[in-house]
Amino acid sequence: MSSLHQRHLAVSPDWLALYYKNPVEITHGEGRHVWDADGRRYLDFFGGILTTMTAHALPEVTKAVSEQAGRIIHSSTLYLNRPMVELAERIATLSGIPDARVFFTTSGTEANDTALLLATTYRRSNQILAMRNSYHGRSFSAVSITGNSAWSPTNLSPLQTLYVHGGVRTRGPYAHLTDAEFIAACVADLEDLLGHTREPAALIAEPIQGVGGFTSPPDGLYAAFRRVLDRHGILWISDEVQTGWGRSGEHFWGWQAHGENGPPDILTFAKGIGNGMSIGGVVARADVMNCLDANSISTFGGSPVTMAAGLANLSYLLEHDLQGNARRVGGLLIERLREIGAASECVREVRGRGLMIGIELVKPGTDEANPEAAAAVLEAAREGGLLIGKGGGHNTSVLRIAPPLSLTIPEAEEGAEILAEALRSVG
Questions:
Q1: Would 166 disulfide with which of 45, 186, 329, 334, CB 3.0-4.6 Å?
Q2: Strand locations in 122-257, DSSP E?
């Protein structure tokens, strides 16, 4: 055990998880690579949990941060802030939400917490519809709407949460149905649920479930839900903390795969927009955003430095068509991983879109989750020079692959080969 690891254990909570038996201290990065304290280089296929969206040490972002820090680091939302207004204008336009207002926070957790505050206040209801296998953050309100027991440490809650079918396509009672039948069954379940309850405030959903192992419903499910929700006046919150900014390749926002009946009422974002800086936020149409009847501010949300980073990062993303790169390189990577998975008895499914890919592992010859194999592959990949993540629903048995969106084809091929060897090492 390293000295730093010992010091970490002495001052950190027991529940603050670390990857690997011998945790890695990452000291610096460049492009799609990071280095540890021993000088070893790794290809990064997890990006600080889908947060280093464009590249490590991206010159455009580091320059913007340095220049803004040299002028002023902090002022709070009590004063006009040009970088915050400029980034809000761009996000409001990109969101697809009409007459949009933007409120900045410091994390996805805080963004979802704010969305819940808005929805429950607007609707005068503390009842929330959430998806099974979901994850929305670690605050008191967010864990209470998280449909994943591994990430929800308490049943106590300020909200009443009702869980809806549909977030996982290939497991559960509707897995055997066709896509059209699956959507119809989930809509019927929602209709039935609403017949037994008081009027909920909102449905919150990740278009692609992140911590849940990159699971998703068929395209159009949330559009079908939207028809039901609109009849009841129930708001739709799209949690885009992991799916936003073009990571799926096919769409800029995850909700757009379900956009037949219009955009969500509220959209939350974080992670990738800051490329590592602490930015989260909420976009909502004006009547929803303005429903609060008390004062509020954000001391650190929308800080001049993080906003400058977000502006530079978003500009780079759009100017270099990283969404298109995620579609092209991600498409090649997922097909390569499916070839690799077909040769392994441990791999149940390779799924995902763009550069958001999950590999679900099971015990050979069964459909039973295999968290031991997932942990072993994580270790073996690290030994091979590749950093990946893990997640999953009933058990943590899904490898999560989400590199920076500037990933090159040679890097994708290198990472796939390391993963192939790691999978072979566990059988």
A1: 186
A2: 127-131, 160-164, 202-205, 235-239
β partners of residue 131: 164
Could you tell me if 307 and 387 are in contact, meaning their C-beta atoms sit under 8 angstroms apart? no
Residue 238 to residues 179, 244, 272, 276, 283, Cα–Cα distance (Å):
21, 10, 16, 22, 10
For residue 396, CA distances in Å to 149, 189, 358, 381 come to: 11, 27, 12, 17
Distance (Å) of CA 338 to CA 137, 215, 247, 343, 419: 30, 16, 19, 9, 12
Nearest alpha carbon to residue 423 among 346, 367, 350:
346
CB of 274 within 8 A of CB of 306?
A: yes
Cα 115 from Cα 119, distance rounded (Å): 6
* Sequential pLDDT tens for the chain (427 residues): 899 999 999 999 999 999 999 999 999 999 999 999 999 999 999 999 999 999 999 999 999 999 999 999 999 999 999 999 999 999 999 999 999 999 999 999 999 999 999 999 999 999 999 999 999 998 888 888 888 888 788 878 889 999 999 999 999 999 999 999 999 999 999 999 999 999 999 999 999 999 999 999 999 999 999 999 999 999 999 999 999 999 999 999 999 999 999 999 999 999 999 999 999 999 999 999 999 999 999 999 999 999 999 999 999 999 999 999 999 999 999 999 999 999 999 999 999 999 999 999 999 999 999 999 999 999 999 999 999 999 998 788 999 999 999 999 999 999 999 999 999 998 7
CA atoms within 13 A on the CB side of 30: 2
Provide the Cα torsion 35, 59, 411, 418; round to 10°.
Answer: 20
Q: Are 135 and 212 in contact (CB under 8 A)?
A: yes
Taking the C-alpha atoms of residue 422 and residue 427, their distance in angstroms, rounded to an integer, is 9
Assess contact for 161 and 145: CB atoms under 8 A.
Answer: yes
Q: Say if strands 41-44 and 33-36 run parallel, antiparallel, or are unpaired.
A: antiparallel
Q: Which two tokens stand for residue 183?
A: 């959507």
pTM over 0.90: yes
- Cβ proximity of 370 and 363 under 8 Å: yes
- DSSP 8-state secondary structure symbol assigned to residue 231: H
